Amino acid sequence: MRLRKNIVANLVGRVWAMGLGFVFIPLYVNLLGIEAYGLVGVFATIQVLAGLLDLGLGTTIGRELAHRSHTHSGRLEQRDLVRTLEVIYLTLSLIVAIAIVLSANAIVDHWLHIGQLPRASVVLSIRLMGVAAAVQFAGSFYQGGLMGLERQALANIITIIMGTVRSGGAILVLLVLHGGIVAFFVWQLIAGVIQTAVSAIALWRSLPAGHTPAFRVSLLHAVWRFSLWVSASALIGACVTQADKIVLTRLLPLEQYGYYTLAGAAAGMLWAFILPVNQALYPRLARLHAVGDESALEAVYHRSCQAIAVIMLPAAIIVALFSYELIFVWTGSHSTAENTHVLVTLLVAGTAVNGILSMPALLQSAAGWPGLMAVMNAVIAVFIVPTIYALVSHFGAAGAATTWLLVNVVSLVVTVPIMHRRLLRGQLRKWALSDVVYPLVGTLALGVLARYLLPPFESRLLLVTIIGSIYLVLVIVCGLSTTHFRELAREFAEIGRQAAVTP
Predict the structure, then answer these.
(1) CA 364 – CA 373 distance, rounded (Å)
(2) Residues 204-223 pLDDT 10s
(3) What is the dihedral angle through the alpha carbons of 24, 133, 44, 251, rounded to the nearest 10 degrees?
(4) Directed axis angle between helix 217-251 and helix 254-268, to 10°?
């Protein structure tokens, strides 16, 4: 019951965030202009790169709090563990802020291709990004702790409230103060400070009452090996996931990168259908592996893979196949749709494959085995930048989006079979067929048929109605293609039948 509650809480939080993006991103583009919006994409990349310094502690805090929650002695250590990792995390946050502030001029002069924006405003924006990224980097530590304690409803309440304040406040700043891109990032910093402070208070109040927490080097000895593997995996993974953004900001004008950022934001909304399940399941997978309950671990794993398929695949297929129409509905601009729809299709396809891969990767981390993904990402990292350069030279931004799709397909095909030789042995065939192929094939075939039959419309309301109806049909088809959701449907049908015959 608690697991379902956490999944629902995470889903609500992510859908709310997706809704905020749907509402506010077109307003940002209109108020800032597409070139300034490209700086918002640069900010997102800086946030990811700043996270490289976390040394795996963000993942470690969630895993270790989950591990320690099922024993009395473990619960006694939780406060000291949080304090120990907190001190390191805050120190790293300060390093992030200082490094980006000092390198702002070099980033502007030697990396970005500015068009109409004043150089001084861009430099100040980069410095504000650095401090804001450091603050949000610290906040991710406290959010990870809440997730590890399975206080995910609380974590999502904080995220929903502060996300609304962050997005709505930015619009007010731009409309009322007319401050442009600098005012936008000032507000991001203010909102980030508030959210990080609230998350820190929430985590400390969620820990068991006890002694005054202390920094303990011995606790670092217990977790350093796992943390370093996670850190290495995250470092290489960030090189893989951010290589397209880094190369594009170097090769393309900021205006064209703005279109790529907009396409990435549209494709990124798909994470609202992936991360809720992942965040809810990670503590449960870690706990089941820790206690050695193989049968329960197997059941949770397959149900989770199927849940991701049903929640994610219909949305991914709809966005990929109807990208032009959806971008037009979203922005009201045929020009914007023309410049972004191919990018959206490719990026969504890559993100969908990554979503399918996410649960096997999560199981590896929960089992204390992040090395496989680290090695795989290291191999990919060797080839990805030359590949992006070659494809971008011939196909522009679409070449970078194609690379994202290829990277995820290769990772999926290679790593999952290797994983199932060590974890949940003998389950590869069941995963491939029941959790991936069956829900994908029928849903995709129906989506392609709908794409072929849909005539052109100019009415945005009519497009939303028709595409929304197709999406609901795809959800039903995808759900009925999985064993877990068929069982749920039979249970609900039986409950309904019994209710109908009960006088």
Answers:
(1) 8
(2) 888 887 777 877 777 666 66
(3) 130
(4) 130
The dihedral built from the CA positions of residue 74, 76, 81 and 86, taken in this order, carries a sign that is positive
Q: Report the pLDDT value the prediction gives residue 230, as an integer from 0 to 100.
A: 63
Q: What pLDDT, on the 0 to 100 scale, is given for residue 501? A: 57
Contact 143/89 with Cβ under 8 angstroms? no
**Per-residue model confidence as pLDDT tens digits over 55-68:** 556 666 766 676 66
The DSSP 8-state label assigned to residue 140 in this structure reads: H
Single-letter amino acid code for the residue at 185: F
Weakly modelled stretches of the chain, pLDDT under 50? none
pLDDT of residue 430: 92
The CB-based long-range contact list for 302-305 (8 Å cut-off, 24+ gap) reads 302/427, 302/430, 302/431, 302/434, 302/435, 302/484, 303/484, 304/277, 304/359, 305/356, 305/359, 305/360, 305/431, 305/435, 305/436
DSSP string, 177-212: I--HHHHHHHHHHHHHHHHHHHHHHHHHHHSPP-SP
SS (H, E, C) 42-83: HHHHHHHHHHHHHCCHHHHHHHHHHHHCCCHHHHHHHHHHHH
What b/e readout covers 317-348, taking b as 16+ CB neighbours within 10 angstroms?
A: bbbbbbbbbbbbbbbeeeebbebbbbbbbbbb
